[in-house]
User: Which sequence fits this backbone?
């Protein structure tokens, strides 16, 4: 019934790992071809694969893990999806229902363990409920503010000899869950009035534009108003990265011009973004002169950390459509003269810093150069799946994303080990696309065993390991706040990655000179059917800049090791 | 400020733990919590008293509303409402103390619901501060052996109702 329900939901792939509590389900999987199961090497990877599928397509990914250790191994992946509001359905096996609570073999209270990191979870108490619970799980995961849903199934609920009537519901209704479908027109009108009067506006958009499929609407709105646009780490690709009106990412490692524009703005239009502490810096110093319009599907995101002057609860796509209509119908026009002055100011900021970094005279490659090369070689159209650390920030800053759903990274939880399984999940579903995993020598080792899964399922992703021989992001903080005491941030005894990936049956390349980079990268991407792992030696002393000064305002930043605003 | 939040909850296993978990996970405090089924057996009614500034309480109600098992939420303290709590209190009571305790009970409209040669058990219903006052005034004369309080339940005054 579980497999049938997944098939009827239209699921093509599930990512998982078998075990005692799931043997009935695995036997059912064996006897059909509609749902393909992908066997990972660690359950965390199964959840990241499902999660990345969701990030790339907007539809819930599915993971299947056994009870006890299988389920606990999945928790990191569930939490990763939860913090970034990603739809996912995770089916966990459970011990027989009569054994629950008896400390049975491989029993863990998965409902309890997962509760703080799921949108909802279900426990199956009667096999007849399986189809309707699975339907509800997808419905809850994908609608409203998306999120992961866990379905815990005791082994005796899937006994193949027990037969029950099966019907997969076409739709579900829950009296206690009614996701909102449009914004309040009066509030939208208020917002539009403010927007048409704004002299120093900024559009600040986030993951809610990506997952809300609203990037076309956002682009149209920004174009018709000539407003500058900044994206959060989760919002990159929501607005074309090469467009003049794009001022870069904002926040802790945001661009100088984006953070300066935010600080001096008189109106901030926040769309599907949650005023995260990595964005706002000190809340009491945040954007002192701005009035704030906040569009979010989750009322709890609004006025949570920063109070909104005009809250609009609704899906970004629908709200933006209505905004665009109202502006078209309005007799007023945006204040062109004021905007011209504002743009002059922004261009001045842009030329002051504008994403520059110091290129060394030595042969040591800068990580930024590697990402710029990736952007060039792939034309800004690749799926870039990142791990966590400095390399992630460089990828966010220097890859120019022109399309949504192509930048796939763990923002809210910052889960090292996310990158490779994420790239696999994308490649599995977009076999013809260029899929890159940008990682560090630290992060890659958290899920490196998945190179074996890549071999089994023929997943020719390109891994770019920015090897700085250290936990660079940690080391940067130690440089800046702990007088360079590098406590446990070195990685001595690194493996020979080339040999290692060859042992897994893939192609390894070592690049340590900038002069070789372009050729090697082009070669890697031309090997369409091989996984290529590029071990790229980069400057181990490099820091990510700009970096906001702790407890400061948006405009307080370090711009280099020696220069501060 | 103190708030009384009333919640209609699906009467499902695990629903209560989601509510309690939310409070601890998000660092909201719970002063008291009561829960019991309603006349509709698929629904429970839960009352939680909490303290926090407006921003925190606004978040609490929004976050509660997000829980899938939560059907409705109101902050009773936003309007006129009635709150009641039940207390049973066991006291050492002998000799002339017995009459003294009885008098205090009468003043507070408490009832003596169980008696032994050495103890009284008193039941008292009222707003929480009335129960506090009763304990305080007994504290001076009798020795308290055990106190059990139900936590606050609340309902809006007038015609307002919290229902489906
Ligand atoms: C090392 C490191 C450094 C970081 N530095 C930065 C940094 O410099 N800058 C930065 O921005 N981030 C940074 N982050 C990421 C940061 O932690 C947050 O994850 C990120 O800022 C949150 O992005 P967001 O506001 O777009 O929210 P998301 O987490 O993407 O949340 C989406 C919001 O949109 C809403 N939403 C969802 N769907 C819809 C819809 N259909 N319609 C309307 N609303 C919807 C949700 O309710 C939610 O409020 C960093 C992370 C790491 C690991
Ligand atoms: C699972 C996990 N553990 C610890 C951290 C804390 N952390 C954040 S970045 C980082 C270093 C990452 O090193 P590496 O992958 O080599 O990337 P680099 O910063 O050097 O580019 C660490 C340890 C984390 N984010 N995730
Ligand atoms: Mg590193």
Assistant:
């Amino acid at each position: 019934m579980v497999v049938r329900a997944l098939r009827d939901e239209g699921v093509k792939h599930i990512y998982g790992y078998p075990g005692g509590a799931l043997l009935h389900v695995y036997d059912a999987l064996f006897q059909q071809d509609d749902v393909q199961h992908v066997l990972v090497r660690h359950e965390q990877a199964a959840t990241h694969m499902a999660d990345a599928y969701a990030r790339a397509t907007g539809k819930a990914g599915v993971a299947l893990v056994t009870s006890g250790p299988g389920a606990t191994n999945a928790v990191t992946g569930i939490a990763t999806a939860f913090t970034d509001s990603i739809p996912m359905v995770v089916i966990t096996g459970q011990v027989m229902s009569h054994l629950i609570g008896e400390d049975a073999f491989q029993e863990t209270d998965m409902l309890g363990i997962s509760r703080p990191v799921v949108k909802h979870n279900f426990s199956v108490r009667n096999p007849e409920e399986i189809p309707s619970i699975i339907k509800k799980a997808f419905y809850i995961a994908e609608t409203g503010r998306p999120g992961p849903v866990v379905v815990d199934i005791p082994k005796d609920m899937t006994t193949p000899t027990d037969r029950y009537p099966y019907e997969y519901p076409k739709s579900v209704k829950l009296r206690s869950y009614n996701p909102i479908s449009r914004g309040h027109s009066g509030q939208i009108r208020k917002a539009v009035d403010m927007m048409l009067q704004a002299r120093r506006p900024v559009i600040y958009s986030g993951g809610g534009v990506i997952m809300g499929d609203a990037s076309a609407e956002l682009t149209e709105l920004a174009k018709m108003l000539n407003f500058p646009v900044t994206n959060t780490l989760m919002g990159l690709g929501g607005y074309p990265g090469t467009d003049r009106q794009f001022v870069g990412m904002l926040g802790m490692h945001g661009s100088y011009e984006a953070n300066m524009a935010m600080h001096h703005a008189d109106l901030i239009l926040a769309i599907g973004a949650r005023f995260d502490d990595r964005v706002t810096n000190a809340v009491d110093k945040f954007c002192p002169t701005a009035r704030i319009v906040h569009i979010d599907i989750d009322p709890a995101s609004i006025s949570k950390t920063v109070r909104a002057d005009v809250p609009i609860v609704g899906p970004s796509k629908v709200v933006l459509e209505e905004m665009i209509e109202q502006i078209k119908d309005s007799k007023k026009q945006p204040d062109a003269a004021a905007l011209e002055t504002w743009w002059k100011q922004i261009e001045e900021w842009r030329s002051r810093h504008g994403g520059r970094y110091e290129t060394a005279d030595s042969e040591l490659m800068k990580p930024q150069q590697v990402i710029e090369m990736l952007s060039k070689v792939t034309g800004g159209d690749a799926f870039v799946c990142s791990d966590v650390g400095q390399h992630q920030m460089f990828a966010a800053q220097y890859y120019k994303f022109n399309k949504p759903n192509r930048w796939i990274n763990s923002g809210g939880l910052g889960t090292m080990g996310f990158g490779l399984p994420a790239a696999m999940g994308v490649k599995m579903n977009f076999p013809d696309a260029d899929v890159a995993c940008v990682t560090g020598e630290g992060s890659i080792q958290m899920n490196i065993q998945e190179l074996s899964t890549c071999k089994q399922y023929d997943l020719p992703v390109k891994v770019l390991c920015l090897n700085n021989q250290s936990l660079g992001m940690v080391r940067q903080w130690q440089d800046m706040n702990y007088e360079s005491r590098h406590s446990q941030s070195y990685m001595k005894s690194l493996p020979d990655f080339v040999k290692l990936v060859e042992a897994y049956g893939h192609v390894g390349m070592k690049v340590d000179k900038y002069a070789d980079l372009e050729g090697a990268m082009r070669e890697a991407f031309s090997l369409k059917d091989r996984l290529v792992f590029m071990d790229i030696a980069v400057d181990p002393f490099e820091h990510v800049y700009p970096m906001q000064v702790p407890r400061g305002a948006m405009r307080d930043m370090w711009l280099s090791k020696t220069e501060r605003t | 400020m103190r708030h009384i939040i009333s919640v209609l909850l699906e009467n499902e296993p695990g629903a209560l733990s989601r509510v309690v978990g939310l409070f601890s996970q998000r660092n909201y405090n719970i002063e008291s919590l009561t829960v019991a089924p309603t006349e509709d057996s698929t629904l429970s009614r839960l009352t939680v008293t909490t303290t926090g500034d407006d921003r925190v309480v606004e978040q609490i109600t929004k976050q509660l509303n997000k829980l899938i098992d939560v059907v409705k939420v109101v902050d009773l303290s936003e309007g006129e409402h009635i709150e009641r709590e039940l207390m049973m209190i066991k006291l050492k009571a002998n000799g002339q103390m017995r009459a003294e305790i009885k008098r205090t009970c009468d003043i507070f409209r408490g009832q003596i619901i169980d008696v032994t040669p050495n103890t009284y058990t008193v039941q008292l219903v009222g707003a929480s501060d009335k129960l506090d006052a009763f304990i305080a005034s007994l504290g001076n004369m009798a020795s308290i052996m055990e106190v059990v309080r139900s936590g606050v339940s609340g309902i809006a005054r007038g015609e307002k109702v919290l229902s489906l």
